[in-house]
Write a structure and sequence with these properties.
The chain is mainly α. The protein has eight helices and two strands, in the order αααααααββα. Helix 3 crosses helix 4 and helix 4 runs parallel beside helix 8. The chain is globular, with a radius of gyration of 20 Å. About 10% of the residues have low confidence.
Length: about 180
């Protein structure tokens, strides 16, 4: 999955073909633990250029890696709406806090922010957080379809961290200091 997207990024000009594949990266780490050089070669990467590449991307835009390129994806939206205070960006895990949901609804101009009245598929738990009602399967067991979380291989985690590093810096430049260190 990652290999196909990396190849597509090379074809689209986001990465240079000198980029090290995940397999080669794993092999190099087996012989040395030095990661002072990123396995990724970004040709003259800027936020503007990466955003243009993503907007004109010829490949699967629903891919695993491309969806995490927040800054290039957000740039056109920030240009269009942020100057007029019409754009709100928050981390997904923060959206489900009840006070943040109320804040989003107020930002959107929803006058009555009583979530329970407007969204019957959300309920508040005792801690005041918003939780989605679990879908029940045919037997009525709401946990039957729950996936098992598998820990990410540390080498793959490092490879992805190095891939997203310049884009996460762009995110801080685009959205401000509170986004500094995102993804680390």
């Amino acid at each position: 999955m990652v290999k196909g997207e990396i190849d597509s990024f090379i074809l689209n000009g986001l990465l240079d073909n000198a980029t090290t594949s995940l397999d080669d990266f794993k092999a190099s780490l087996a012989s040395t633990s030095d990661v002072s050089t990123s396995p990724f070669v970004f040709p003259n990467l800027t936020l503007e250029k990466s955003s243009q590449i993503i907007q004109n991307y010829k490949g699967d835009k629903k891919g695993f890696l491309i969806r995490g390129l927040y800054a290039p994806i957000l740039l056109p939206w920030v240009k269009q709406f942020a100057a007029h205070d019409r754009l709100m960006v928050m981390k997904f895990k923060e959206v489900w806090n009840a006070s943040n949901v109320d804040e989003v609804l107020r930002f959107a101009g929803v006058e009555d922010t009583s979530i329970d009245e407007h969204y019957d598929d959300f309920i508040r738990n005792r801690q005041g957080k918003i939780i989605r009602k679990a879908n029940k399967n045919a037997t009525g067991d709401r946990h039957a379809n729950k996936g098992v979380q598998v820990p990410l291989d540390p080498t793959i985690r490092l490879y992805l961290k190095l891939f997203y590093q310049p884009f996460n810096r762009f995110l801080a430049q685009l959205l401000g200091e509170e986004w500094e260190g995102w993804g680390e």
